[in-house]
Amino acid sequence: MVAALGLLVGIVAGVLLHPEVPVFLQPYLPIAVVAALDAVFGGLRAVLDGIFDDRVFVVSFASNAVVAALIVYLGDQLGVGSQLSTGVVVVLGVRIFSNAAAIRRHLLNA
Amino acid sequence: MSADEQPGGRPRVPAAPRRSPWRRLVRAGRPRATRGQLLAGLLCAALGFGVVVQVRSTDSSGLEDLRESDLVRILDDTTERGDRLADELRGLEATREQLTEGSDSAQAAERAAAERATEYGLLAGTLPASGPGIVATVSDPGGAVRSTHLIQLVQELRDAGAEALQVGATRVVASTAFADAPGGVLVDGATERAPYAVTVVGDPDTLSTALDIPGGVRETLRQAGAQLAVQTSPAVQVSALHVLSAPQYARPASPEPSADQ
Prior knowledge:
The structure holds 2 protein chains of 2 kinds. By secondary structure, chain A is mostly helical. Chain A contains 4 helices and no strands.
């Protein structure tokens, strides 16, 4: 409930403030967002598994975002930025799907 | 990183026997002031914020977040398009130049035609003329002046460079004919009576000198009993007009090469 509320507050804040994304962050923000999304789905799955731990959630959230951005940064430096960011998005997408599948199995028994 | 890494997640079996996952979700979602709830809310707020910001910046995406290869492609496209447009511009400018030149030469031709029309109008007597010249008045108290006298007078004036000429109220042109008439002289069918005022545009000195040469017009007129009075003026008006009629028989000869031989 608090998490959903926080999500709502964040969206409203983003809509109201509509801040400019700093140029140096622009290539990494989308990847970081996808990584954070993955962490949130993982956390939801952990809640349903009954093994949710706030410390793990926070660390996984932050490290997911940072590592994803770092990988893309490294890829940009190596000249394979677009390919590597595609790879990261694919991997995170697969993880999000598997987490969503686990959540679905819990909630719908299917 | 996420669920997989929950400490002891995999080996541990949930302590409670089999609670409904829905109830577990509701229980977890129930607002409590625990650190976990707060942190999750905070992180979710950050996520929502990031999502919105990213969506917005994607919506208003300019060139700044494109990759190098895309930028190079766009630059190529733009350069090519610019080249094409520059070509088009050059073509259009050339066309405009041609059109301007064309209208310039058309204007020049028009001006030249107007000038020529003015010259021809003066020569043909269809335009009034003014300028320096003389007014020669032939007074004829005895009625002795014949058409030959006037012809001689006109010839002498033409010889002296008369450019426009009128006798009485009749313009004298190339086709003007003089004939004797009772009480006067027929000039182009109109009867002129004494005194005959001849208005001439030309160099006044040359014209008046031409009339005074020994054995010339003045002497002839005096012998016939008439008087010639000459008055020079810096501005005389030859305002009588000759009415042109289209030639009935004459046609321009076609300038064929064989005509020269």
